[in-house]
Amino acid sequence: FTYDVSVPTATVVLPVDGGYYSVVKPLLTISGTVYDQYTAINRVEASVQRLSDYWWWEDANADGVGAWVSSTTPKVVTLSTGPGVNDWRYALGSAPWVHGLQYRVVSKAYDAGGTGQTYFGVGVASNTFTYDTGVPTGTVVLPAIGGYMNSGQVLITGTAVDSPGGIDKVEVAI
Predict the structure, then answer these.
(1) Which residues are bridge partners to 158 per DSSP?
(2) pLDDT tens for residues 83-124?
(3) Which DSSP category does 123 fall into?
(4) Would you report the helix, strand and coil content of the chain in percent, each value rounded to 5?
(5) For 127-148, how does the pLDDT look when each residue is reduced to its tens digit (9 = 90+)?
(6) C-alpha to C-alpha distance for 91 and 59, rounded to whole angstroms
(7) How far apart are CA 95 and CA 26, in angstroms?
(8) Nearest CA among 44, 60, 50 for reference residue 9
C-alpha cells in the first residue's frame, strides 16, 4: 500500500485570471492542470460563481448543460481523471456568460487516497474573468467634421470608450 500525506493541486489555466472574454474571444472550455506527488488524481471538482449575485453554475451531469442557481454552498462539476492524466477540462454546451459581469472559477483536486486540495489561491486554483460583448466607440475631436488642417497643425485628438473592458489600442487612418 501507499501511505500518502501529500496534498494534490488543481490549477485553473483557462480562463486566465483577470482576462476578458467575448463572442470574438469565446470561453466555451474551462481547463487546468492537476498534480500529486505520490498518487494519481482521482477527480477534480470545478465550480463557477457569477460575482454579481453570487449564484453558482450547476451541471449535475457534467455534460456542459446547466443553469445558474442560488446557493449558500458552491455547486461543483465533478470531472473524472485517471493515472497519467495531468489536466482537467470542462466543455460548456453554450456560453452562459452575460455582458459586463465577472465570474470566478475554482478547482479542487482529490487524489486516489481521498485527500482533497486545501489551497485555493487566486491565479492558481481560482481565476476571475469578465465577459465583455460591448462594442468600443471612438470619436475624432480635432480636426472637426468638415474642418480643414494646414501644415502647421500636427495634432489629431479624439476619445475612445469601452466598458467594462477598457481600450487596448486606438488606430487612426488618414
Answers:
(1) 140
(2) 677 899 999 988 899 999 999 999 999 998 889 999 999 888
(3) T
(4) 0, 40, 60
(5) 999 999 877 888 888 888 888 8
(6) 11
(7) 8
(8) 44
59, exposed or middle or buried, with CB in 10 Å at 0-12, 13-18, 19+? Answer: buried
The CA distance from 35 to 29, in Å, is 20
Angstrom distance (rounded) from CA 168 to CA 43: 39
How far apart are the C-alpha atoms of 51 and 102, rounded to whole Å? Answer: 6
Q: What is the largest CA-CA distance in the chain?
A: 85
Place of cell 506527488: 37
Pairing label, strands 137-142, 157-161:
antiparallel
Dist CA 13 CA 29 (whole Å): 10
